[in-house]
């Protein structure tokens, strides 16, 4: 499976204070919106304090977009230092996110390209106790 060969997956249960993501706009839709407004290579998506922080880099610069997870609206942006980009033959972030969403293995709360591989953190639902 290409996903396992191109990504390091970290899965775990979050503390009970983490808000449920079910009512949120799918991450793939949010990434498409950011990529449309800020063309380039998507390098990271992190859910932090009820805000998606999405990084996109083109040949000259990088931008971090702060996105409302419920509405998908870009709240603000800021220019950031250039980050490590995936190689041209690496699977794109958006493609990985769509495959994880389709497989319904958990909800992504963090995905980033780090040291030559994708690192993915998932929120898994707890199984009901008997």
* SSE sequence, one letter per element: HEHEEEEHEE
Q: What integer value in Å does the Rg equal?
A: 15 Å
Number of strands: 7
Counting DSSP H or I runs of 4 or more residues, the number of helices is 3
Structure description:
The chain is built from three helices and seven strands, in the order αβαββββαββ. It is an alpha+beta fold. The protein has one domain (2-123): Roll (Nuclear Transport Factor 2, Chain: A). A seven-stranded mixed sheet has the order 1-7-6-2-3-4-5. Helix 2 (27-37) runs antiparallel to helix 3 (93-103). Mean pLDDT is 83; it is low at 1-20.
Topology (SSEs and partners):
Layout: H1 2-6, E1 7-12, H2 27-37, E2 41-47, E3 52-57, E4 62-67, E5 74-80, H3 93-103, E6 107-114, E7 117-123
Parallel strand pairs: 1-7
Antiparallel strand pairs: 2-3, 2-6, 3-4, 4-5, 6-7
Which descriptors would you attach to this protein?
alpha+beta, seven-stranded mixed β-sheet, 21% helix, 7 strands, single chain
Short description:
The protein is α+β, with helices and mostly antiparallel strands. It is built from three helices and seven strands.
């Amino acid at each position: 499976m290409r996903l396992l060969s191109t990504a390091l997956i970290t899965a775990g249960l979050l503390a009970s204070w983490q808000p449920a993501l079910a009512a949120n706009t799918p991450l793939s839709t949010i990434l498409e919106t950011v990529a449309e407004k800020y063309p380039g290579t998507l390098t990271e998506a992190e859910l932090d304090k009820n805000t998606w922080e999405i990084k996109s880099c083109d040949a000259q610069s990088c931008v971090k977009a702060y996105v409302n997870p419920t509405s998908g609206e870009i709240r603000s942006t800021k220019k950031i230092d250039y980050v490590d980009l995936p190689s041209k033959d690496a699977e794109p972030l958006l493609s990985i996110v769509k495959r994880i969403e389709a497989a319904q293995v958990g909800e992504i709360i963090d995905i980033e390209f780090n040291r030559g591989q994708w690192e993915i953190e998932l929120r898994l639902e707890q199984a009901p106790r008997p």
